[in-house]
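User: Need the bound-state model for heme C:
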Amino acid sequence: MTGMKWMRVVPAACGVFAAATAWGGTPGRPTFTKDIAPIFNANCVSCHRPGESAPMSLTSYEEARPWAKSILKNVSERVMPPWHADKGVHEFANDRSLSDEQVATIVKWVEQGAKQGDPKDMPALPEFPNGNWRLGEPDLVVTFDKVDLPAGSPDQFFNLPYQIDMPEDRWLRAVEVLPSNRKVTHHVIVYQTEGNQPPQGWLSAWAAGTAPMEFPENTGRLVKKDAKLIGDMHYHPADSAQSDTTSLAMYFAKDADIQKEVINLWIANQNFKIPAGNPSYKARSSFTFPQDSEILSFLPHMHYRGKSFTYTAKYPDGRSETLMSASNYDFNWQTQYMLKEPIFVPKGTRIDCVAEWDNSANNPRNPDPARTVTNGEQSFDEMMIGFVDYIVKDGLRPVSAEQRVAEARTALLAEHAGEVYDAKAIQEGMVIAGALFLPAQGVGAWHLAIMGNVYQATVNQITWQGDKVTAQVAVAGFGTFGFEATRNTATGELNGRLSLPNGELGLPVEGTLAK
Ligand code: HEC
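Assistant: Bound-state model below.
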């Protein structure tokens, strides 16, 4: 806001010193055709044109002129164009925010009466796909079920399934998500799941104004031949009844061209409890890179109460660096922030994510400030996921979480034979592989493979009574679980459950003594 005051002073000053355009670098008498249309073409019309998400088109002077006042306000308050990454150390290839100079030019143009200028100066509009795929004919198109949206209904969320059936796994070099009705579609995230496994990351995401996702040269995303896709849809219904059919175009790469798999990592926390009315509640999640890697992009994900989100790297040499922060997070804009230059993270680098929520009545987006809010998929629940796309420096892809658990098992077994179990937890049919060191006394350990990550839990307060055992299992990012189990000494089998302190979320655990 202080910036806005300063900008309001500029036009008056320049009115007097019309020739002295040097300070601030803005033109003395900006016109639409010469100065404004180039900015709008580059930063606005991807959304502000017919058929797209924005409420009005800004492709011509006639369309833009009636909105001049609103444009001044939205642009100088930096509501438009929507861009929520703070300016910092790293730059983003898809940064659509305006420079201070561009903002000053727009403000000056409006304050001087929003003049058209010479029509001969009008630049050509960028080319738009017109509903067709922007990267040409796809190799495979997936079409999710049609969704009907009654007039005036509140926001709608759907998880639309789609079963892939291909003769073999395929590498994608590019992928585009395209809702048919972009007026009402708010965002789409397409997840890939496999069998009974938790989601293996996402394939692609769409929000207003996004370009097709093209992976860097010699990298790609692998789609399993029998993957089940989930289209996670968020709609903003309109005053009239509407419908949408969202499709996904896949562009296959030649296997031989792929040297790196682009991994979609979730740095998530599912065990937070945001007190009713709390204006600034924070939760954390972390991930430590097991191999030298390069980060390509970020996408912070929370719901309506999301207030800010930060990714910080703690390097093995002790240095800390903020990689990406959104101090003004807005759920409405699920933007993937694509780095201009990948960030190298040596093995052992820990990424710490901090999510902040505003669950007070002062948050105009808050659906219910009187509610204590926990993790859940509904929009009135909350989520904390720091999505990261990355590639490993050596090899095709990171060693899988299951392989790393197997390695941990071998190491534990070498030292603690007779006290190590292959212990899996089962969540709604999904199997979480684990290696559990459960000693007779002292502190144990549990390595768990969750959504591609390995979580290293400590097992405290181990108490045996005959063949019955209870313990506390602290999983970073998920919280502390109670554990109780019974061991069958004859067979070496372990049967029990993990549950939250309040008794919720009882996950069955099945183990066998490792040999
Ligand atoms: C990524 C898509 C996108 C881009 C890029 C974008 N807008 Fe918007 N704009 C929207 C949407 C959607 C809305 C409707 C409000 C909302 O949903 O937040 C909007 C609303 C507005 C409004 C408020 C209209 C009203 O009702 O008063 C103005 C003014 C505006 N945009 C101007 C701009 C300008 C100028 C630019 C470029 C400098 C721009 N926008 C870039 C999507 C976009």
